User: What shape does this take?
Amino acid sequence: MFHEIQKTLMRWILGISLFGIAIWSAKKGCDKLDPTYLVIGFICLVIGLIAVWESLFAAATRPFMALIESIVFPVTKFNKPLLNLKLPAYYIDEGRYDEALNEYRKIIKYYPDETGAYEKAIWLHVEIFEEPEEAMKLFNRAKKRNIALSDQSRSLVKIGQKPLG
Assistant: This one.
């Protein structure tokens, strides 16, 4: 990285120096009407342009390349992940209940009005993990958000609250 910066800096110093010589030589050639100075000025101008061409070209084309890339390869930054209810359902089918519950928690976090995520998470807490307290917390959270849960979810929470035996 440092080598590239050093190389670019040296090219710019050389280019600017040659531009200065080209201007001086062109002015002197015009004043004295001497074509030799004009030719020397033109040669210095061309060599100076060659020296700084890479940097100038990159700077000139950067906005256009950014525009083209934004059209061809649009980058959309989502502030929340895409809603995917199939992944946790797949985890449940595979018996990977911890992963399914984690996915439902993510869904509830980013999509707090998603009824299905609450219902499945409550079911997992009551039926699989036997954590009725966590199910009740989710139920109350859904209730605070005015989410209409199914009767089955309500009965699961009520059953989970009753002492067994």
Q: What stands out?
A: The first helix runs from residue 2 to 32. The mean pLDDT is 87. The chain has seven helices and no strands.
